[in-house]
Records
---
Amino acid sequence: MKRELKKIDLPPPKPFSLSTMVGYFVILVLIALSYWSGIAVEFSLSRLIEGLPYMADFLSRMWPPDLTVLDRVWKETLLTVQLAWVATVISLFLSLPVGFLAASNVFESKALRSAVIFFLNADRAIDALIVALFFVSAVGLGPFPGTLALAIHSVGMLGKLFADAIEAIDRGPVEALESAGAGKLATIRWAIWPQVAPHFISFFLFRFELNIRVAVVLGLVGAGGIGFLLTQYMRLFQYQKLATVVLVILVLVMVVDFFSARLRKAVL
Amino acid sequence: MSIIAKNLSKTFDGGKTYALKNVNLTIQQGELIAIIGLSGAGKSTFLRAINGTNPAGTGDLQVLGVNVPQLKTSQLVGLRKQIGFIFQQFNLVKNLTVLQNVLVGRIAYAPLWRSLTGIYSQEDKSIAKKALDSVGLEGRYYDKARNLSGGQQQRVAIARALVQEPKIILADEPMASLDPKLSEVVIEMLENINRERNITVIVNIHVLSLAKKYAKRMIAFRKGEVVFDGPPSELTDEKVEAIYHVDKKAMDEL
């Protein structure tokens, strides 16, 4: 038996629908916005092209890197890594209680949770450099205010990640612990902690990785370490020594990324 | 007397729907009871009202001599350590060992420092090992819970309930995640525990044949109300039909 296909009447395509008009308009607005902002930042292709020989000159002066300063560079690199490490460890201890307080499935007090979440959001919004300015005015220049700043700033991210991990746990074991008459602390210790600990270690390593990079930048503004050395050589026009610093930073970041990624894979 | 419920009710949807409606029950120490009924009939709500993890709304619920709705959180801990609970999904901590999971049942008896460090007394450890032996898991003490089969995990959960040295064991659909053969193993175990240790066992169950075979008393819930309470022999086909009957309107809502 042959069945006839029903003809479906499609409406003729409209040349211009409202939504495509809106689309063109949005694109126009975005172009105008970019042009307006480009003028504000004095964007100039000709200046960039004129600058090219100077860039080449700069780079050629860096070559070959002066490896005689390697000892000093190594010492300052160590300080940068130490700063990042101490800051990340402090932030870990601060983030643990904060993470549990910010998670909606651990404690019942809603007011406390809202306050903690507000602090975390505010902390993430304020860059480590700005926090550093605050601590410099409190304890003076050097690596110490940088460490404090980085520690406090890291809580914003670590605390949030910890809270998210806690909220994602399987609720079953919590129910089992509560039903067996376990108190709040024992329930956290045996039903929540075993589920989140591997994630916490992974987040800690990830934050340490980020903090090394931030610690380099903090050095630029006076927290010491390899970032400080970088500005020094720059000011003294010692470009070949500067090249050594840049190379060491590159190697440092790559090495830390490599090992951190491996460790994180191993714990999860 | 193990459990006495008087006019126990609980509503949700802002009072429109009853999870429990005017429940009156008396359960003696050492009974083995199967609770049957459709999903959402109030079986789970009733079990969780007994140990206070899902507090009942109104009415009285005497459990082991205390009125559960009036207990504070700190007092609930004292009651719950005498009540073992077995879950459909086993609710083990998957990346801990079998032994650590069973020792969870001793937490309420251990001092705080022991329960937080996990350094349990030799006595607690031997109680836990003995319980694992009694459910046929000797030699598996240090395996990770995640590496056990479903049936083995449920036996770990039974051992966890046993080390609480409970007066009551509540089991919420303990066989629903297991195949039929393992289901029978689990209910046999619960029956043994009930008979040998005089522990009151209340099992929510959806396999009618197993319920009739092992329970000495059956209670049926429908829309939060107790609609049958008696020995399996009195549960006729017409009564079963009335318990499990799904009316047209409810089907449409599904």
---
Amino acid sequence: MPDLETKLARSRSALLDEIEQPPLAVVRRRATRIRRRRSVAAGATALAVLGVIGLAARPWHQDGPPTVTATDPPAIAPVYRGGGIEIIGLSPTAVYDLDGQIAEVEFADRDNGFAAAGCAPRCPELARTTDGGLSWHEADVRPTGGGPVDLLAFPGGHWLLDGDLDRSSPDGSAWRVVNPPLAEPQAEIGPGMLLRVEQPGGQVVVWSWDRGRLGDLTTQPQLSTARWVAPAPTADGAWWVGGLVGTNPAVSVSRDSGRSWTTVTLADPPDPTDSVTVSTLGTEVYAVARDEAGQVLGIYHSADGGKTFTTTFLAGKGAAAPYTGDLVPLLDGRLLALRGNGAPSSWWVSEDDGRSFDPIPDLPAASSIRRTYAGYVVYGLFSGSWAAFSPNGTNWQKLQVN
Amino acid sequence: MTRDQGDRAMEELYHACYRRLVAQVYAFTTDLTEAQDVVQEAFARALARPRGLADVDNPEAWLRTVAVNVVRRRWRRRKLLDAILLRDRPVARTVEPAPGPERADLRDALAALPPSFREVVVLHYYADLPVDEVAAMLGVPTGTVKSRLSRARTALAGRLDGYRTEVTRARS
């Protein structure tokens, strides 16, 4: 007997299948009728207004100085479109100076995010946005030390800045230093917690936003070594981990908050796999095997939520595909990938689950896409230190920070 | 932006967002035909604007707001008409959904839930919106959405004999 969640998921699929989408021409005809109605109404209104003005203006009297009532037209940002992808460019308002090249951008939801510059040699303050990247200001936190920092968004809009000293914030405004507890095995991923992978051992570790590192997950995925873990659970609460079984790429998924794991071993590419990442959208799951340089060795697609995978792309010996960063399953069923400084475009899409990719013209150059807690960030936009954020991979907002 | 670019942008938006918006609006209508009609109306209104949606920051959010407003306006009109014309008559369902494998029980059970429960279930499970976005869309705190989801699941399970509920953590 299926549980309610399964029943709801099936019902959702049935609902989406039932939705009929008429050609846009049908909607255009409807728009034409709306325009006609409006012009008739506007004509009638204009006649009435003219009548009122004719009486109220009292043309036989001397007028005073004219009053300006019109406002300036709203400033409109340039928009770059191609292949169904849209990037809204900078608005004419000020760009926040990050005091260094953008190293990391993280969003906890569509509005709240932080941007960090690399520490060279000192770490500048983080920049914070509360409006989806349209405006930025100095955050009340600054990494210390010269080591690597990692900015983590947690469920509920909580934050943790992991550096030589961990700092946390319930909402991104007030930060305090975190004193992690003595590490203890964790039976499950509790509400509001995240997973991270530690190298070189490949242990999967549970983290909390306000206490930091809690300890290894008791039941580890059945991988020889874990190399990657999703920054957030999927919509149905599944946690994905990528790694190796022997030398084969493999993925592991837990649907019970880390208490048990199901592992699928994937076809082995000719060149050695270094890491495996997973991108999901609903029941569509894409696993990607990468070499040490991050280039793609294999793409594996699952249409049943990860129960079974089909190998859709396997690179030949020494012929890794030069896609960098995370693949993005788009809402219309295509798969988006980026080729850093690729020609004729950085932006490529696949309509056959990764078997082949076609370039999208008319979009600015970019270097890579990285999944964040709440969406995706594209780096190296316009071949510079620009970034853009998208909750879905289709609609991007260039960030007003540099 | 030229007219051709605007037309192309609208084509792409229509292709990318239509089904998603219908699923979201279905939360408020419980009638798929009406949800489709309302979303088409929203796109028609966008097309009827002189600049299309070129001056709108978030076209999908704009379309969703328009669609939800259309639903509310129609609902108010219908309520008024009901009050005037149908006060003493038994209310009959005018549109019977076609029977389907998942409709007969679950979606009927869903339609019978109080609107506040039904909205969160459809927005979260059907429209695939995370809890915080459902909260933002309905203008209620995140905790309220989680509580309604939990109670709605219990209510649904009660209406669907033989289905067990599994307490799962709603994604934030």
